């Protein structure tokens, strides 16, 4: 199943790149899946990590995911899929609201996604500094800090994982002590 999810994600994200870079987009879902696999052996959760952006960014439907990967994988992906008709702030607030009551598996998936994003941001921040924020739709660092620190508050139950500690440390390095 994981091999099928890798192939599906590669096809869905074919030709896409990370914002402001020439890094193929597929690197992000692959890294997200590696992070998740370091916290769980749950094959369906790892598949959801690989597929977490295909609905939001590649036009795949929930029905397609369910038909190919089953209802649980589809539900995990849909729980993390943002509604792009809403503003950046509304989407991020909805994610934080979801995390308030999300099950542990959803928190692991979100940690994998956000840690991958934050690693990329931290690396590029070291190279280009504050200009990093210009590549995003939301250009205010303070808003990104609000969101990433909000995620950190809501995933504290995962603090026993070294990857969660890495997330907390990267928040401090990129955003400072808020």
UniProtKB/TrEMBL annotation:
It comes from Hungatella effluvii. This is HD domain-containing protein. Gene3D superfamilies: Hypothetical protein af1432. Pfam families: HD_4. GO terms for molecular function: guanosine-3',5'-bis(diphosphate) 3'-diphosphatase activity. InterPro entries: HD/PDEase_dom (IPR003607), MESH1 (IPR052194). Residues 21-127 form the HD/PDEase domain.
